[in-house]
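Example record used in the benchmark description.
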Amino acid sequence: MTENQIALRAARSAAIALAFLFISGCYPAARISAIPAKAPADYWLEKKQKIRPHQKKAVLEALESVRKKAASGSSLEGLGISTLKESVILLEDPSSAIPFIADAIEGRDLWAGLRGEAYYWKFRYWCVDMAGYMGERQFDAILASIVSREEEKDELRIRAVRTLREMKAKENLRKLFTETDNPAVREEIAQAILYFD
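Model output (structure tokens):
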């Protein structure tokens, strides 16, 4: 083969590859779920069983105090400012707080009866924010599920995106970007992805 023939074949192959990429971009691809696998139910139970009674009491009292402040009707900013003491208590021993924060975010166990309350999303917002400081990778699945659920409040979904960014969950954010239709949430995800690049 001559150099011209090699160049012609290379150009033809490149043109075919570009055409394929263009055509594949024109048709919607099947959606792949972006939600990572959730931790097994006994994962959180095992974590709770390792917590000493006095630590559990301190964590639950702090979370209950936050819940009451969220129920009082304060704004998100006001809630954040008024709960600095509770934040410090939880951050002093994050391993004790992690399973209870996961329960509060998902509305399990002690928090199951609060899911229908009008203020509960503010309490969850606060817990989602705290999750970013805990260093627990199992929160990825919980936060990704919040971002992907259209019925969740936009403020809560955006807070979950920001927490995923703080946790450096770049791949989860990329998957969520392709799956999310809400423009405000997509924009927040795009900004989070750009933060990494």
